[in-house]
């Protein structure tokens, strides 16, 4: 698996190196190069929460 980090993330090279140590290749890109965004879904007990990366825009939707 290759991970792409946004420029500026290299401030946390300890995490990047830890991921590299367990086999993840990586590349640090500038914003103009494009990258995936963070999408998160969380369930606590019977409650669901969702979030998207506000830098890219988007919305949340639940399908039951």
Q: How would you describe this protein?
A:
- With 64 residues, the protein is α+β, with helices and mostly antiparallel strands.
- The protein has a domain at 1-30.
- Helices cover 14% and strands 34% of the residues.
- The chain is built from one helix and four strands, in the order βαβββ.
- It has one helix at residues 13-21, and strands spanning 2-6, 25-29, 39-44, 47-52.
- The strands form two sheets. A two-stranded parallel sheet has the order 1-2.
- Helix 1 links the parallel strand 1 and strand 2.
- The mean pLDDT is 76.
- InterPro entries: GGT_ssub_C (IPR043137), Ntn_hydrolases_N (IPR029055).
The counted number of beta strands is 4
Helix content: 10-25%
How far is it from the N-terminal to the C-terminal residue, by CA?
31 Å
Radius of gyration: 15 Å
Q: List the helices and strands in order.
A: EHEEE
Strand content: 25-35%
Shape assignment: extended
User: How is the main sheet built?
Assistant: 2 strands, parallel
Q: State the strand order across the main sheet.
A: 1-2
Low-confidence stretches: none
Oligomer designation:
single chain
- Quickly give the structural class: alpha+beta
Mean pLDDT score, rounded? 76
SS field, number of helical segments: 1
InterPro entries: GGT_ssub_C, Ntn_hydrolases_N
